[in-house]
Each structure stands twice: as structure tokens, then as C-alpha cells.
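Example S7 (C-alpha cells).
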């Protein structure tokens, strides 16, 4: 029992040192745990427009400041979409029912292959519905779903994602957008938002690249005072396609470094004979099965990411849900089962546990490098730390010294239970 506690403490230290610590100290969005709630939110209204909108989106009909609106285009919705996605005089074809994988309220369009006028290959998108609050001007505000979703990138990799919401009145002619970058999280089977600034800049560049848009007067920035979530600074891009000088006004709501591959020479010069002996003792304990364990964890974890992107791009017969159903078992079952099978041939519990936890930590960071993630919320950091500890306990519980009395020892049982609870908790949104 004492040995198991020591192993567990070592795993917690590894999880914090290699996952939690770097994420908490380098990620700009780790402080965003619970969003603020606006009890009497201000709405944004433009001159010449009767309708107004709240400057955030939400997953439900409540005024939590979650997803900031960061692009507004004055113009007809059809014209805005055409400018973003046109390819010269390309004819658009609507996706058939089998190809469409969007939530209710989402409309999908697919362009023929070619060069997009804006330089960005904006196309059909699938994503969870988010709600915007709009007031047509009579004080009877309502929550509405998106008119359209667009994306550039891979659903199972990294993408820029736009949700568009049109004015409730035909004559108002504005489209509010929430644009962000995101990546698919295989532990939660959901997309995780990385930030909003990069996508906003991409849309700015897209409109400024169009010959009918004057860069100096038609594309400006206005302060919507919706800073806070992710890397949002409160300034939204305003694109004027109707030739009207506009100014937003707020109205009150009327109705309620480099990785070292070895020991630096400067450090080795200060090692004592005892230190060198300890290092040699550790390296002498490395055997092929340690390397096999590390390779298996890295291959399975990263293989799911690469495999998901490859299937999405090249196997049209598989829907997004089918790809997830095919690959998620590799994460949920394949990684712990392979870890147990390989670690069962190792002698020492601490060796197996450390190799497994370090390998999963490395796999996590390599995966983030593949999809270009540079910021993480606290709940994701905590979840990654827990799975690193859980897999280390499974590996340690499988080692021969841990199974001398029983294969179902405390380390294996605790590690397996933690793994299952964390995965179920993340799937259902509790972790």
C-alpha cells in the first residue's frame, strides 16, 4: 500500500510538471472558468436600423458572457455569404441530406473546387447550435439560432469556424458573426475553442481583399465592450457593404523554447560521482518493453488524430458521427488495454507508471502541436492531468511486482476507475 501511494504521488507530480504547470502558466485562457452573467444586458443597435442584438452567443437562452460577437457586416445575408465563399462565377450546389451533418437551424452549402475570391476556402460547416439574442425593435427580444455556419480547416483537426446571424427585419441589413479557431477534442468528442482573434483577422483580410471593398472606409473596428472570453479584446470588425456611415449605440434591454535531448555540459560538470551512479542506474533499467510501451501510447493517441483527419478528407462514405464511432474506442479502450498488456511484462511498478504517464504527456503536447493549440481552459488542463495519472496507475498496477498477490490490485483498480470516471465525466460535461 505504501508503495502504491508513492507511485501515485510521483504520477501527480509528473502530471503537474509536464501538463498542468506549462498549461497554467503559458495559456492565456486558463483563467476563464465561469463566465459572467449579465442580468440587464445592453444591446447593440446601428443608426438606420430598428433591430438590435446582444454582443454574445450562448449555448442556452441565458445571458452568460460566453462567445463574443466579433464581426458585423452591413449588407444582405446572401451577399455576405456570396462574398465570403464565391469562386468567380461558380454555381453553388446545396448539400444532399446524407452529406449534411449540421445541427437544426444550420444551412449547408458546398462550392466546387477552385480558387476562392477571398483566398480562404470557406465552406460547409457542421457544429453545435448557439443562440443569439435579438430585438426586432419592439422590445420583444428573442433567442434565435444561427442562419449559417462556415468553416475553413478540418472537422477532426483544426479549423476556423463562423456562425452567422442575420437581422430579424428585412430592411435592417446586418449580419452578426462569431468567428473563432477551434480543435476537435477526442476525449470529449467536442470542439474546443482556442481563441477568437485569429479568425477575426482572417475575415478582415478576406473582405479587405475584395475589389468592391474600400480598405480605409469600409472595414473598421468598433468597441462592443465584450472582452474577456478567450483572447477577445472587445473590439469587433465592422464591414460596411451598403455605403452608409454607421455608429453603434448601446440601448438598454427593454424586457427583463527548445527541448534539451540530454544533460547540458554545464550541468554535467557539476554532477558528483553519486549523481552519475544514479543516472546510470536508471538508464541501465531501460529495456525494449519500456520503448514499446511509449511507442504504443504515442502511436495510438496520435494515430486517432491523423486517422480522423485522413478519413474526413478521403472517405466520403463515412459521416462525421461514423468516424467518431470508429476511432473513439481506440482512445477509450485501446490506449489503456495496450498499456496494461505491455506493462504486464515489466518488473517494477514505478518504471511502468512513469513511462506510461510521460508518454501520454508527450502525446498530448504533440497532438496540440499538430492542431496548433496555444491556449487551454482550466477544465481541459485538469482533465489531461487526471488521464495522465490514471494511465500511469494502470501501467503500474500491471507490472509484475504489483500482481504478485493479485492482478486486481489497488493501483489497477483505482487507475481503471479514474480513467472511466474522467472519460464519462468529460463526455457528459462534468469535467
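Recovered sequence:
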Amino acid at each position: 500500500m505504501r508503495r502504491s501511494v508513492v507511485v501515485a504521488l510521483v504520477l501527480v507530480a509528473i502530471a503537474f510538471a509536464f501538463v498542468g504547470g506549462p498549461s497554467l502558466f503559458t495559456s492565456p485562457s486558463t483563467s476563464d472558468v465561469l463566465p459572467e452573467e449579465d442580468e440587464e444586458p445592453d444591446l447593440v443597435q446601428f443608426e438606420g436600423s430598428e433591430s438590435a442584438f446582444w454582443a454574445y452567443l450562448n449555448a442556452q437562452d441565458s445571458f452568460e458572457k460566453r462567445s463574443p460577437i466579433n464581426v458585423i457586416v452591413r449588407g444582405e445575408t446572401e451577399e455576405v455569404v456570396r462574398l465570403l465563399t464565391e469562386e468567380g462565377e461558380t454555381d453553388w450546389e446545396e448539400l444532399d441530406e446524407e452529406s449534411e451533418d449540421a445541427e437544426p437551424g444550420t444551412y449547408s452549402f458546398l462550392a466546387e473546387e477552385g480558387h476562392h475570391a477571398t483566398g480562404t476556402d470557406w465552406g460547409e460547416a457542421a457544429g453545435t447550435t448557439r443562440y443569439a439574442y435579438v430585438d426586432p425593435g419592439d422590445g420583444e427580444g428573442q433567442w434565435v439560432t444561427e442562419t449559417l455556419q462556415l468553416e475553413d480547416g478540418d472537422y477532426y483537426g483544426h479549423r476556423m469556424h463562423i456562425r452567422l446571424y442575420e437581422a430579424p427585419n428585412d430592411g435592417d441589413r446586418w449580419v452578426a458573426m462569431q468567428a473563432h479557431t477551434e480543435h476537435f477534442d477526442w476525449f470529449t468528442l467536442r470542439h474546443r475553442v482556442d481563441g477568437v482573434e485569429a479568425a477575426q483577422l482572417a475575415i478582415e483580410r478576406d473582405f479587405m481583399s475584395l475589389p468592391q471593398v474600400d480598405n480605409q472606409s469600409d472595414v473598421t473596428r468598433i468597441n462592443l465592450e465584450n472582452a474577456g472570453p478567450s483572447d477577445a479584446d472587445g473590439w469587433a470588425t465592422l464591414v460596411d457593404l451598403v455605403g452608409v456611415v454607421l455608429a453603434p449605440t448601446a440601448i438598454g434591454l427593454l424586457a427583463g523554447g527548445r527541448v534539451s535531448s540530454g544533460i547540458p555540459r554545464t550541468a554535467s560538470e557539476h554532477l558528483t560521482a553519486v549523481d552519475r551512479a544514479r543516472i546510470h542506474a536508471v538508464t541501465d533499467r531501460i529495456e525494449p518493453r519500456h520503448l514499446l510501451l511509449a511507442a504504443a501510447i504515442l502511436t495510438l493517441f496520435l494515430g486517432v488524430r491523423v486517422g480522423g483527419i485522413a478519413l474526413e478528407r478521403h472517405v466520403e462514405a463515412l459521416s462525421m458521427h461514423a468516424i467518431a464511432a470508429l476511432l473513439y474506442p481506440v482512445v477509450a479502450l485501446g490506449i489503456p488495454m495496450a498499456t496494461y498488456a505491455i506493462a504486464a511484462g515489466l518488473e517494477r511498478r514505478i518504471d511502468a507508471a512513469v513511462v506510461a504517464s510521460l508518454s501520454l504527456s508527450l502525446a498530448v503536447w504533440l497532438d496540440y502541436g499538430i492542431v496548433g493549440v496555444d491556449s487551454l481552459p482550466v477544465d481541459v488542463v485538469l482533465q489531461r492531468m487526471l488521464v495522465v495519472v490514471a494511465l500511469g496507475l494502470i501501467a503500474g498496477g500491471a507490472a509484475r511486482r504489483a500482481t504478485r498477490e493479485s492482478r486486481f490490485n489497488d493501483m489497477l483498480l483505482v487507475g481503471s476507475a479514474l480513467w472511466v470516471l474522467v472519460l464519462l465525466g468529460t463526455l457528459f460535461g462534468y469535467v
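Notes on this example. Residues 44-252 form one domain.
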